[in-house]
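Take a protein:
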Amino acid sequence: MLINADLTRQAIVDSTALDWVASPIAGVERRMLERDGVEVARATSLVRYAPGSAFSPHRHDAGEEFLVLDGVFSDETGDFPRHWYIRNPPGSRHTPASAPGAVILVKLRQMPDAETETVRLDTADPALWHQAADGSRVASLFAAPWEQVDLLRWPAGHHTPAHSYAGGLELFIIEGYITIDGSTHRQGTWLRFPAGSTLALASANGALIYRKTGHLPPPPAAAAP
């Protein structure tokens, strides 16, 4: 299955317009944003757990990253309510479940073997946030040579001048609306811009955004004349 699988191309998906699709596990549904593979796949998805649903134990050979958007996600390491950010490195194992139900933004099979760190962060903790020079607030969630992940809280009227993203840019709008080069996108929209994109970003009424940078491959070389 290929959904927005070419990482050198722009992709924009309003997830609220997608149907929830049943997974092989009863009570677990997905909205697929990007996917390269069938069940074992490089994927970015929204995953919804019905109350009382659970996966069987499994291993993440190329890692797993997710942000809890609603409800409570649980596994052997704890219970993680809304706002928690999790990274399980390549080779990790767990048994996911949710007693009250949950919705998570999850990225699978997107970590290099060099990543060995397990991350558990409560992004509702004020100590995680700092004020940026442009007036926004930033929570740094992960930084490595291969990618950086942050949450951004933009105030109403925020504007970021045109900037070139050498390693690409990926966004998920958790709350509010944002405008990119004149086009406005609402809560629930996932956006991916390839390496080398130059973009001007703004928010008229404020927004909370997941941002990943530096992780996308360079564009293919132009064919020789």
In short: The longest strand covers residues 64-75. The domain at 125-213 is CATH 2.60.120.10 (Jelly Rolls). The chain has a mean pLDDT of 95. The chain has two domains: 2-121, 125-213.
